[in-house]
């Protein structure tokens, strides 16, 4: 059921595994553990030779089934060994921040390079916990057919877009601040060992939460200055990198491949236990990220000296804030009611996790049912009685 006060133009089913891994990744800061020391040695730039190697048909970077192969290996108790083979991995969310990627998750990049990805846009469509972490970052495919027609030099949607939307029967609600960026996704490609990539899959829930995919990335030109606009049309050679797409991007991924005439890659068949309790959010664009979570992305963008215009875009995204006594009371009651169960599932996931860090089927089903019950209680009771737990009240359109 949708929250009172907003419509539901589109839907998104999500699995609780990805949300659990996000929450688990934030626990060290939440419980006051000391931060892991990060090696201050500068990370070298990924060489042109390594980027060209990613195009080879024999490259692991292009292997569409690599994540499944690693998962199968780890499910049988066989650790992924350190080898000379490396993986190029595209980060776009909290993994941009060294505190998260190199600290909490313990990844040791071999090299890195800033990139832009014309096919993708940043989204915040992975549901989290109402009143606390309303949503997390993901990616969606963007429409590149109108590049150059819908934004200004800094990459923001202009007023003409609103007029076009009105003519099409859409409302300004479709253009929340987190959807104002019109240019390609900006991120960082890390070169990591196969063993570290297996760790990324485990900590991000790839295969059972996010979907592992291969995408074309473009390095910024050598003479590019961070104060310049993000290029709309690439002038540098593309290379292949792996990334974790949000669950809602699966269908768009298949449609995009069909439109490009590429080989059709079907979605993996889901076992019956995986589908138990899958929850439905009526409008994946509705929720706002927390200030804590968005700050990780902004900090990472600054650390990598990503384009100033993109950093400005991140800075203007409105985060969720509690503004009424009712919301404060609702948060306390909601946390008292649901946090013990969340902590129980997180504890069980650590106890019963397999070699790859993933939970067994029965625990995934249990987590799905828990999150479904949590969000249903919010939609049917808490949002009505205590107030909005996804968007700041002042940001709700009328």
TrEMBL record:
Coiled coil: none annotated. InterPro entries: G-Glutamylcylcotransferase. The keyword Transmembrane helix applies. Substrate binds at residues 89-94, 293. The chain crosses the membrane at residues 332-353, 359-378. It comes from Penicillium salamii. Keywords: Lyase, Membrane, Transmembrane, Transmembrane helix. GO terms for molecular function: gamma-glutamylcyclotransferase activity. The active site is at 204 (proton acceptor). Its EC number is 4.3.2.9. It is an enzyme of class 4 (lyase). It comes from the Eukaryota. This is gamma-glutamylcyclotransferase.
